[in-house]
Amino acid sequence: MSGAAKFEEISPADFFYRYRDIAGFSNPTRALFSAIREMVENALDACEAGGILPDIYLRLSLEEEREGASIYRLHIEDNGSGVPGSTYQGPLDKSFTAPNTGSSNHVGCSA
Predict the structure, then answer these.
(1) Range of 53's domain?
(2) Pairing with 7, which of 14, 42, 59, 63 sits 20 to 30 Å away (CA)?
(3) What is the rounded distance in angstroms from the CA atom of residue 43 to the CA atom of residue 55?
(4) CA 54, CA 44: separation in Å to the nearest integer?
(5) Cα 99 from chain centroid?
């Protein structure tokens, strides 16, 4: 064996399916918590990088109960720099990073 690592390219959907425990999607409560935490952290990081005080609006509402499952709507707005609309194609299209922020986790989220 050569010792060289083998890499494979997988889609974002496949990644989150394979590693749902690590990504925080192993159960509905944890998934909701992970989504809120990630978006708030991204907003705080973007505001810090821009040297502005964060202004974050978060609303979580129960939309309906269906077949034993709860459907929630998560709405988050912030005053961070954001991803330009002309660059963004969709929630699973690309991962965007913000340069010169000390972090590579500045991403846009929309669904």
Answers:
(1) 9-111
(2) 42
(3) 9
(4) 6
(5) 18
Q: Which two tokens stand for residue 41?
A: 């952290």
CB proximity list for 111: less than 8 A, separation 6 or greater: 91
Number of folded domains that form the chain: 1
Q: Are 16 and 27 in contact (CB under 8 A)?
A: no
The pTM (predicted TM-score) of the whole model is: 0.61
**Separation CA 34–CA 27 (nearest Å):** 11
End-to-end distance of the chain based on CA atoms, in angstroms? 44
Residue-wise pLDDT for 72-102, tens only, equals: 898 888 998 776 667 666 665 555 555 544 4
Mean pLDDT of 13-29: 77
